[in-house]
Amino acid sequence: MPNGITAIAAAKPPRPSAAHDAMTLPLVEPLRIGDLVVDPPILQAPMAGYTNYAFRQIVRSFGGAGLLATEMVNARGFVWMDKELAEHPDRLWGVADEPRPLAVQIWDNDPDTLAQVGARLAHEYKVSVVDINFGCPVRQVTEKAHSGSYLLRTPDRMGQIIERVVAACHPTPVTAKTRLGCSRDKINIIDVAQIVEGAGAAALTVHGRTAADMFRGEASWDLISQIKPHLKRIPLIGNGDLDTADKVVEAFRRWNVDGVMIARASLNKPWLFQQAAAALRGEPVPPDPTVEEERALMVEHFRLVCERFGEERGAVLMRKFACCYAQGRPGAREFRKHVVMIDTAREFFDVVATYFPKA
User: Fold this and answer.
1) Over the stretch 211-227, which tens digit does the pLDDT of each residue have?
2) ω into 137 cis (within 30 of 0)
3) Residues paired with 134 in a beta bridge
4) pLDDT tens for each residue of 41-83
5) Which one of 63, 65, 269, 296 is most buried, counting C-beta atoms within 10 A?
6) 182 classed as catalytic
7) Domain limits at 348?
8) CATH number of the domain that 43 lies in?
9) For 209-233, b where at least 16 C-beta lie within 10 A, e where not — what string?
10) Any binding-site annotation on 20?
């Protein structure tokens, strides 16, 4: 990692935060997922195609995330690769050796397959948490594979899956991530939450949209908050639209949740966890990196990807990450137009030198 991205940020004058200026901060306790203590109770969301080992290393360099997570892993694909190719999915890159705590999210609709893979992750990889995806709204997962948020149509099936995975993974905690329901006229999250808890899950994460919403509109934190009184023993983690440190503080102050999960906003601000953790402690919020520091971060990210996948595939994979780094800066569109065409390391560095935003 570039030495001291965190140290550099800490050395610069911190910027004030509305949360820091407030006279009263919410009382935020560490999150307990089974025997695992997550402190601070700020989780990094699993995101397909993005939250791989390289991204997790970048987040870890800043700190502030109490629990990191892999991309979601197709359980059936894991079993097939293990049997046919004697290797494991790229989405498990780095998992065996990287620091803990670490969660791995799995998806499928078959209890036996999910239990088999969950057991491998818990007992062979020794991950901290096995999370089951009941929230992905993407057609390939829902309509084609009848998994992810598709299973919200059959909460009893969700319960069967959780029971099997919990038994297979014991004593490693098993959690569930879901949405409010299939659509706005079919919100069944209270029933789902009670089934998740009754089946033995150690925590529930709820994204404040329905499957039909995809990522449109605003997350409904008021509906997330209404779940808590119906849970007797497990923590509730809220997810959706947390893109600033102040919003994280506000989530704990205003809504009835035990933890929060940051998702898409972290792709172009992997330092957001550090900022949110500082705000929760009532400390000055570290500033965003300078353009030069952000460029160095992106270059390190590229190095990690190429180290694993080689220059040719690494360059292709880095296109989307590079676009995230430039997002929101003047000149981002021009940079994006060129960086999505790169095929080699030389092209990557030429585009960065020529088009990466200067301010």
Assistant:
1) 999 999 999 999 999 99
2) no
3) 178
4) 999 999 999 999 999 999 999 999 999 999 999 999 888 887 7
5) 65
6) no
7) 291-355
8) 3.20.20.70
9) bbbebeeeeebbbebbbbbbeebee
10) no
